[in-house]
Amino acid sequence: MATIRDVAKKANVSVATVSRVLNNDTTLSTSIETRQKVFAAAKELNYVKKKRTVSAPTCVIGILQWFSSKQEIEDNYYFLMRQGIEDYCSKNNINIVRTFKTDINYMEALNDVDGIICLGKFSKQEVENLRNLNSNIVFLDMIVENIEITSISLDFRQAVNDAVNYLYNLGHKDIGFLGGIEELEDGTVYPDKRLSAFENACDSKGINYKNYILQDKFTTASGYGMMKELIESEKVPSAIFAASDPIAIGAMRALQENGYKIPEDVSIIGFDNTELSGYTNPPLTTMSAPVYAMGIYGIQVINTMLHSKNNKLLSPMKIYMPCPIKIRNSCGKPQQ
């Protein structure tokens, strides 16, 4: 069985740092990259914290994920969101029932919980079914149209506008968009707010973009393939906005394999600020998505719902979390 020292060695940090990260020590001042390394090392080594004698749990919260467990391993976006929820629950003595939408009986698993947090994208019918199951519910990473339901999402409009402004101020007048398509349970496509925000931002500044828009999946392979398509069609803009860091990293590889220098020939900016984005060549400029904090805010809202003296006075909220830019070395002024 793995020990805390094994996790510390794997993550290349001190034993004290591992202990404080895994115990959600709010006084610890460390980067999100370090926290991610600790969580990843603990998960890979199957580290289990020693059980302590605790009082009875205050409540039971259900976590429903639209990603499968396999997808969560491949993309830590939702893993970090869930980690924020679970760290808060551990500190506040809240029990968890975790289930995936790919589980056949996921609705049954949520029957007796006190509240539900839904991570990801859900169809209108799924939203209604879940709300009918439990009124103490919050949706993370999507804004639900129903005004009676609380949801928390990223502020894509402001983030994309900031990204386009950054490239425009560097002098770029031709900017491409590489994005992904997410399909809901009912077969409809979930609209990506990043694309509409990108088009509006470019239109407002007279930026040429219409010949450089491609969408596939939110993966590195898709980013590589979409960039190859632009290269082969000889439609390479001076800058690329990628809707996720994996897409951006795939696009960077395609550019470099075909003789393009970054940022001298093409600037590229991503979205997420994953740990890997700081270790690409060159390090990737990206928009920071505070998904760990989103998880914490989500469970705090549920906890407030459950422990408010008058739940009816709590108004549903639509929360948009800001995504500040992380400037590194993948963007520069375009060649004359």
From TrEMBL:
Domain HTH lacI-type: 2-58
Transmembrane spans: none
Keywords for this protein: DNA-binding, Transcription, Transcription regulation
One MF annotation (Gene Ontology) recorded for this entry: DNA-binding transcription factor activity
Name under which the protein is recorded: LacI family DNA-binding transcriptional regulator
Natural source organism: Ruminococcus bovis
Taxonomic placement: Bacteria, Bacillati, Bacillota, Clostridia, Eubacteriales
